[in-house]
Every structure is written in C-alpha cells, then in structure tokens.
Amino acid sequence: MKPVAFDEAETYEPEEGWRRVSMAGSDRFSFEWFEKPPGHSSPMHDHENEQVCLCLQGELTVATEDDSVALQENDSVLLESNETHRVENTGDERAVGLDVFAPGRSFDFWTDREE
C-alpha cells in the first residue's frame, strides 16, 4: 500500500487559483486533483497518455480541435492518447476536477516545464 496524504502531496501552482496535486498512482495510471479559477484555461496541448477528466465541483469545458463538451458536477470525458485538447473553467466560481492518466505519468510533466 502507498498512501498519499492530500496536504503532503506534491503540488504544482504556477498561477494564483490554479493548482494541481499529485495523488496516488503508478506507472500504469496516475491521478491529479486540480482546481481552476473562473476563466482559467489550459492551452491546447496533447500527450501520449489517455486522460479521463472528472468534474467534481463547478463547471469545466473540455475542447478538442473538433468538438467541446461542458462538464457539470460528476460528469466526465475520455480524451484519447495524443488527442489535442484544453480544459477551461467556464463558470463564475472555482472549478475542481480529477484527471486520471493511463499509462501513468510522472508529476515531472508539470514541475520540470519551462515557463
């Protein structure tokens, strides 16, 4: 067993109100909890990992090059490997979500990025 206490987990917070927290996972899958302030959007990007994005609180819009979907509390979406996408908080309040990646990825994806 490999527990991860939320308050002690590795965190990436490049902007006020946008935070990601590395949760328990392995090389087969990984979990990242995140929060986004109203209006925050990730840039269009892709990665080799499949991704499930679950909206826990607020509302999120997940857009690909061809489509978009609005997620409300407890809604989720699957993004295929290398599918270009972005995730945006389209609501008026903080949005909270959980991303699951397969295969798992190291949190270095965030912490070793060049700003």
From TrEMBL:
Gene Ontology molecular function, alphabetical: metal ion binding
Pfam families assigned to the protein according to its UniProt record, in alphabetical order: Cupin_2
PANTHER family: OXALATE-BINDING PROTEIN
The organism of origin for this protein: Halorubrum persicum
Gene3D superfamilies given in the database record: Jelly Rolls
Protein's name in the database: Cupin
Domain Cupin type-2: start-end pairs: 35-101
Domain of life: Archaea
